[in-house]
Specification:
The protein is an alpha/beta fold. It has a single domain (50-350), classed as Metal-dependent hydrolases (TIM Barrel, Alpha-Beta Barrel), CATH 3.20.20.140. The chain is 31% helix and 22% strand. It contains 13 helices and 18 strands. The chain has helices at 70-79, 98-111, 128-133, 148-161, 174-185, 193-197, 200-217, 229-240, 251-255, 259-264, 301-304, 321-330, 336-350; strands spanning 2-9, 18-23, 26-31, 37-42, 47-50, 52-57, 82-87, 115-118, 120-121, 139-142, 167-170, 221-223, 245-249, 291-292, 367-377, 396-406, 409-413, 416-417. It has a six-stranded parallel β-sheet. The protein has a five-stranded antiparallel β-sheet with strand order 5-15-16-17-18, covered by helices on one side. A four-stranded mixed β-sheet has the order 3-2-1-4, with no helix packed on it. Strand 12, helix 8 (229-240) and strand 13 form a beta-alpha-beta unit. Helix 7 runs parallel beside helix 8 (229-240). The chain is globular. It starts with a strand and ends in a 9-residue tail after the last strand. It binds (4S)-2,6-dioxohexahydropyrimidine-4-carboxylic acid and zinc ion (ZN) (2 copies). (4S)-2,6-dioxohexahydropyrimidine-4-carboxylic acid (DOR) is lined by residues 58, 90, 170, 270-271, 297, 312-314.
């Protein structure tokens, strides 16, 4: 006897309808006809995708919970169709010691509605070995905050202790960022100056030096939020030459150009900054990109009201990405296969997340049901995140997540969010 049978599910737009059988949190059968179950839900031909995996969120817990916490962040995740998130280490304290890592594990286990992994920060290299034992999703380094010597030492140390682990990089060269920021600060307070303060070259040079380290050590490197054509080209070439590098793009770098800094001011301020049309990546580049991550980076409106140089960078992204992408599917610009590859399959593969990312027998019953016909307007007032702003505010969308299940448990159904015990995925 099954726990749950989902009937009339479509796994792709033109696919025949199937029934998904779920027992003990696992997908145990995919059949034409329904099986006996304690509960049956008729999805009436709606699309069912594997629950989305966001490899890049900032849940601000501990220490910065006035911006977001693991409960509100994970509520935003399920509202957006996500069932797994990997949290970034720039919390207070940063997740760069075994003690801080264990503390975050406890916070996630207590507060998270979705399953979660944790990226470890890198500062005191003598902690790397102990951190490895705690199974981080990756080691995250902000190249905009460290110098070349530190980066080299970090690669060397991680390679000697954890040669099979991923190093995730925020790739912007610290010297160039500093130099251009100082120059641009002299030009005033126009938000559009921000994209010149961190020019494409800062990303491109950081990507170049990281590729050479990845090659030298044969260490897997994941480039977070790639924002320029040139950097993607470099990553693509390196990979073709056998270098173990992967790329991620955010929805804001994909859909918005630097004009949005004019339109939305600091609400569109993010690192790396939005790019001009010449440098910006577009939807036609998605086949070369491995992952979409939201870089969900919530701040308060009060912080965002400061002048452009003092306001913190970052936009919340968990509750807008799927409607934005489904809109493109409805316009014929994107396939559901692309969404699955970028937000389910590759995230699971690159970050070694067991039993997730695919709808097949034996996998966790992490699912998102989408209504491709449901229309709406992006309205941050409806967000579950504490950060109720978005540079996508006012966008018309068609296609939305309507049900999210984490290991067979119903956690989001239309406007309702239910309790769930999110688990550590590693
Ligand atoms: O825009 C960003 N926000 N970029 C980063 O690298 C950090 C992030 C944050 O934590 O707010
Ligand atoms: Zn970053
Ligand atoms: Zn980030």
């Amino acid at each position: 006897m099954l726990d749950l049978c989902l009937v009339n599910c479509k796994l792709d737009i033109n696919a025949e309808e199937v029934c998904l059988g779920i027992k003990d949190e696992i997908i145990v059968s995919i059949k034409k006809l329904p099986s006996n179950a304690d509960e049956t839900i008729d999805l009436k031909g709606k699309i069912v995708l594997p629950g989305l995996i966001d490899v890049h969120v900032h849940f601000r817990d501990p220490g910065l919970t006035f911006k977001e916490d693991f409960h509100t962040g994970s509520a935003a995740a399920v509202a957006g169709g996500f069932t797994t998130v990997l949290d970034m280490p720039n919390t207070l304290p940063p997740t760069n010691t075994p003690q801080a890592f264990k503390e975050k594990l406890k916070i996630g286990a207590k507060k998270s509605l979705v399953d979660f992994g944790i990226h470890a920060g890198v500062s005191d290299l003598s902690y790397i070995k102990e951190l490895v034992a705690l199974r981080p999703a990756s080691f995250k380094i902000f190249m905009d905050l460290v110098d070349d010597d530190f980066l080299m030492e970090a690669f060397s140390k991680i390679n000697s202790v954890a040669p099979d682990h991923v190093i995730s990089l925020h790739a912007e060269d610290s010297k160039l960022v500093q130099q251009y920021t100082e120059m641009m600060k002299k030009e005033g307070n126009d938000p559009e100056l921000y994209s010149l303060a961190r020019p494409p070259q800062a990303e491109i040079e950081a990507v170049e030096s990281a590729i050479s380290l990845a090659g030298k050590y044969n260490q897997k490197v994941h480039f977070c939020h790639v924002s320029t054509k040139k950097s993607l080209q470099l990553i693509h070439n390196a990979r073709t030459a056998g270098c173990p590098v992967t790329s991620e793009i955010t929805p804001h770098h994909l859909f918005l150009d630097s004009n949005y800094l004019n339109l939305f001011g600091n609400l569109a301020k993010t690192n790396p900054p939005l790019r001009d049309k010449e440098n910006q990546l577009g939807i036609q580049y998605l086949p070369e990109i491995d992952v979409m991550g939201t870089d969900h980076a919530p701040h308060t409106l009060e912080e965002k009201e400061k002048n452009v140089w003092d306001a913190p960078p970052g936009v919340p992204g968990l509750e807008t990405i799927l409607p934005l992408l489904l809109t493109q599917v409805n316009r014929g610009q994107l396939n559901l296969k692309d969404i699955k590859r970028l937000l389910c399959e590759n995230p699971a593969k690159i970050f070694n997340i067991p039993n997730k990312g695919f709808i097949s027998e034996g996998m966790n019953a992490d699912l998102v049901v989408v209504d491709l016909k449901k229309e709406g307007v992006i309205d941050p007032d409806n967000f579950h995140s504490k950060a109720r702003y978005s540079p996508f505010e006012g966008f018309n969308v068609k296609g939305m997540p309507v049900i999210t299940m984490v290991r067979g448990n119903l956690v989001m159904e239309y406007d309702n969010i239910f309790k769930n015990n999110g688990q550590f995925v590693y």
